[in-house]
Specification:
With 131 residues, the chain is of the alpha/beta class. Helices cover 44% and strands 22% of the residues. A five-stranded parallel beta sheet has the order 2-1-3-4-5, sandwiched between helices. It binds manganese (II) ion.
Length: 131
């Protein structure tokens, strides 16, 4: 695992650029996927330290992508933060139940996101059972 490599799964080009620029200026390297399927493939190939996962994606959505990551022994320990426009409480509960390690709402607070990322990368298993 490369501890400074972050996978961004996001279909919106502007959102991808915002995240990429914020991460790169902070010293992270980034990989980008524009669909859940591509995200799964890049995660298995590159083993990033953390994944930022949009929810609304073409093909499988972010929740299903997370489920598949966690179903694979090779990728199940990678921390995943949901990045989503949704603000409804029912959806917030659904994301927590799904097992994301964090939830960031758009427009993303870069400082808050980076803080949560740092926590997860420094102690990736905090707060979650990893078999
Ligand atoms: Mn999207």
């Amino acid at each position: 695992m490369r501890t400074n490599l972050i996978l961004i799964v996001e279909d919106d080009a502007n959102s991808r650029k915002l995240l990429r620029d914020a991460l790169q200026v902070t010293g992270y390297e980034t990989l980008e996927a524009v669909s859940g399927e591509q995200g799964l493939s890049l995660a298995a190939e590159h083993m990033p330290a953390l994944i930022l996962m949009d929810i609304q994606l073409p093909g499988i959505n972010g929740v299903e992508s997370l489920r598949r990551l966690r179903a694979e022994p090779a990728t199940r320990a990678i921390p995943v933060i949901a990045v989503t426009a949704s603000v409804m409480n029912t959806q917030r509960a659904e994301f927590q139940t799904a097992g994301f390690d964090g939830i960031e709402f758009k427009p993303v607070s870069v400082a808050g996101l980076l803080r949560r990322m740092r926590e997860l990368i420094d102690a990736p298993n905090s707060g979650r059972e990893v078999p």
